[in-house]
C-alpha cells in the first residue's frame, strides 16, 4: 500500500509540474500575439494608453509602429526589423514598444497623414517627437527595409534626447 501511494503521489507531482511548465511556457509566449511578427522576444504593450503609462513610469521612450497586415511595405519592413539584432536588442531593453494595426485618437501621431508603415517616438514626458524623422519628405515617419540604419540612428537619438532634456 505504501508503495502504491508513493507512486500515486509522484505521478500527481509529475502531472502538476508538467501543467505548471505548460502554464509557464504559455506565460512566456503571451507577447507573441502582440508582436505580430515584429519581434517575439520584445515585450509589447497592448494600447497606446498603456504605452504612455509605461513610458512615463519606466522613463523609456515609447516607439509606436503603425502597420497593416496586408501592406507589402509593412511586411518588408517588419522582416528587416525582426531580423536586425541591434534593433531587437534596443527594443527589448531601452524602449516601451507598441505596434498598432489601427489609428489612435492622438492626432500628434499622424502629423503628416495616416499612412503605413509609420514609426514614431514619444518620450517619457509624453511628447511626440515629430523631430525624429526618416528619409522621405513626403512621408516623414516611414522607413523601408534599406532604411534600417536610419531607424537605428533614430532609436539612439530618441534615447539621447531623453538624457539631455529631462
UniProtKB/TrEMBL annotation:
UniProt keyword Signal, yes or no: yes
Transmembrane segments: none
UniProt entry keywords in alphabetical sequence: Signal
InterPro entries per the UniProt record, alphabetical: AGR/TXD (IPR051099), Thioredoxin-like_sf (IPR036249)
Pfam family, one: Thioredoxin_7
CDD domains, A to Z: AGR (cd02960)
Annotated family: Belongs to the AGR family.
GO molecular function list: dystroglycan binding
Lineage: superkingdom: Eukaryota
Gene: Agr3
Signal peptide as annotated in the record: 1-23
Protein name in UniProt: AGR3 protein
Any Gene Ontology CC annotation: endoplasmic reticulum
Amino acid at each position: 500500500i505504501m508503495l502504491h501511494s508513493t507512486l500515486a503521489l509522484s505521478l500527481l507531482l509529475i502531472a502538476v509540474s508538467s501543467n505548471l511548465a505548460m502554464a509557464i511556457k504559455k506565460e512566456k509566449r503571451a507577447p507573441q500575439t502582440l508582436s505580430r511578427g515584429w519581434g517575439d522576444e520584445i515585450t509589447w504593450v497592448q494600447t497606446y494608453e498603456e504605452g504612455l503609462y509605461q513610458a512615463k513610469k519606466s522613463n523609456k521612450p515609447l516607439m509606436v509602429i503603425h502597420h497593416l497586415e496586408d501592406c507589402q511595405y509593412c511586411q518588408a519592413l517588419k522582416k528587416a526589423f525582426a531580423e536586425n539584432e541591434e534593433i531587437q536588442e534596443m527594443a527589448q531593453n531601452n524602449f516601451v514598444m507598441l505596434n498598432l494595426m489601427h489609428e489612435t485618437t492622438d492626432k500628434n501621431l499622424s502629423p503628416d497623414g495616416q499612412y503605413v508603415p509609420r514609426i514614431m517616438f514619444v518620450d517619457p514626458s509624453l511628447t511626440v517627437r515629430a523631430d525624429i524623422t526618416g528619409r522621405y519628405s513626403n512621408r516623414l515617419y516611414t522607413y523601408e527595409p534599406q532604411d534600417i540604419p536610419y531607424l537605428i540612428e533614430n532609436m539612439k537619438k530618441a534615447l539621447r534626447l531623453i538624457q539631455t532634456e529631462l
